[in-house]
């Protein structure tokens, strides 16, 4: 998968872990939960690990992925339309 | 009794005499749509809110974000806020990873339990272990046994949710034998078009439970079980004075005895020996100084009543002498010498004359003196002698009159003999109903209507050698 094509999947995985912060899953488990192929998911997950968004524990093939919850959580309301100044 | 963990669910804690025993593992078994997950989340939510006990929800299939959203919109439970306060974790995980991490020393689950000081855990659902066990060649029963031991080691009060796949209620899954308790949720047809949800504690080690299927509703506060055998209590401005029945167990069921100035029915079948119940109640009234008006039955003569009360240490002759007792006799039977003035013969009276007799002779007598009156009569005799129509037209009036005079009335009747319609009318007219019957080789007694709204389960009646000669088991 090209890097450009991986961006939506990267967003999808980030959103998934952010919405389910105590999800603990293997690659096979994430394949089932997200409905995406392992070979597409693996590079994206590795990238998210490098970025510090998720954590990877255990050794292959029993590695588990989980969310790396930020120390400070800020909730923002983003309006659908921008207000005029 | 062991320390108990309150579930925090109104009604369920009452059914469990306070809650589930500490460190116990309990299966919540139910068909889809019965509210198993709701009960599990409620157990954790109320544990945090009421007891400040942290909890973990393990969800194998459902996504945590779906649960956050469902319970927030249905019940207003903000689980994310509880997670942020380190009181809760909603963990989405596959069954195999979960078991692996539970068994791993200092595994992710153990770390999480320590991190939040977890006291309660809910696993939704253990039914998925079956597929995991099948795929990996594990024994499902052994897996569950291991899980129970790990949960116990961590000292957690655990609810294991189980999908009921076998709708045959007599089927007992293997899992029931491994755990400490089983609570079963069911949905059944009600009044043709409705569905009734019921909760039953099938098994619970280490605590007393209220048996039976308890109806529950899913309200805006979660599951709300109603205690089985409970109807709406009568509202009384003044608490009724209690009249002891002399039978300790029966008094306990009635919060101290029957209400003074109320009408009670004893429904018996032909095989049941109801005489010890009657003997105990009547003798207790004499001991308390009440007067008695008794309508004799076709099968019970004055001699029989005399012998019965003598057995209960009451000298009827003395009561007659003191004019503490009067009899209404529908049969021309002989009476002991000196008792004539206590007996009203009504065998020659038509129904209308009988009514006049009650109005002009009997009721004024009950007005006399300072003493309380207790009335005992066999309604089957009135039905035989005066007809069903007479009873239907006069019983409500007589009951109302007795109540207005503050008299306590005990009516003997065989509901089966009088038919469903008449029985239903009589039941409606009285304030309380006790039922005694023989089933197989045992006799039972049950309170099926009472002013406190509390209906009892059927109790076994055991004979005793001393007064009151019976007790409830």
From TrEMBL, chain A:
It comes from the Bacteria. This is Uncharacterized protein.
TrEMBL record, chain B:
Residues 3-241 form the KaiC domain. This is KaiC domain-containing protein. It comes from Thalassobacillus devorans. Gene3D superfamilies: P-loop containing nucleotide triphosphate hydrolases. Transmembrane segments: none annotated. SUPFAM superfamilies: P-loop containing nucleoside triphosphate hydrolases (SSF52540). It comes from the Bacteria. InterPro entries: KaiC-like_dom, KaiC_dom, P-loop_NTPase. The lineage of its organism: Bacteria, Bacillati, Bacillota, Bacilli, Bacillales. Keywords: ATP-binding, Nucleotide-binding.
